[in-house]
Amino acid sequence: YMKxxxxxxxxxxxxxxxxxxxxxDTTLIVGRNNSGKSSLADLFIDLLENKKTHLDFFDxxxxxxxxxxxxxxxxxxxxxxxxxxxxxxxxxxKKQLAEDALPKIELKLTIKYDKGDKNKDGKTxxxxxxxxxxxxxxxxxxxxxNEAYICIEYSSDNVVxxxxxxxxxxxxxxxxxxxxxxxMLKYLEENIQGYYSVKIYE
Length: 202
What we know:
Layout: E1 3-12, E2 15-21, H1 37-49, H2 64-83, H3 88-101, E3 105-112, E4 117-118, E5 124-126, E6 147-156, H4 159-173, H5 180-191, E7 196-201
Antiparallel strand pairs: 1-2, 1-3, 3-6, 4-5, 6-7
Helix pairs in contact: 2-3, 4-5
């Protein structure tokens, strides 16, 4: 009985922001070429089956390029504030802005399960699903609910290290300010797997 009833995908290739309800029996994914049909299956395989993710910079949707730049500019503002010795609260806020702006690929699953049944005497008439593997994702204490939510994301492990390394890379290239974005994206293309990893949340 346990089944996925809804899938939400964010920032993955052509699937910038998608929500798909899955039917009880059969769900058909139909669309023109290059509309994201294969991407849906690829993301499931990469995040749920592969022992090590193969996601890279080119798996982010096109809209993420602006987000990477926004996060980079926010981080530079944080460094300027740190250099100007602004108070700790403002520094934390500016650093948080950079972290929040940094894009991530997300796969959110809604899973419906059978809790089992008991008769009026309290005897079990239906054991329901084995919830051992799912227990950490069942957050609601409402006895009438039978849904769990799982969020799987490909996100940055350390925004400070990522952007400090990018800044050092750009300095080594001795690039002009107008070329900063180009070199920032080039560094991410070549190195993002060293700074991003897959995480699973309830």
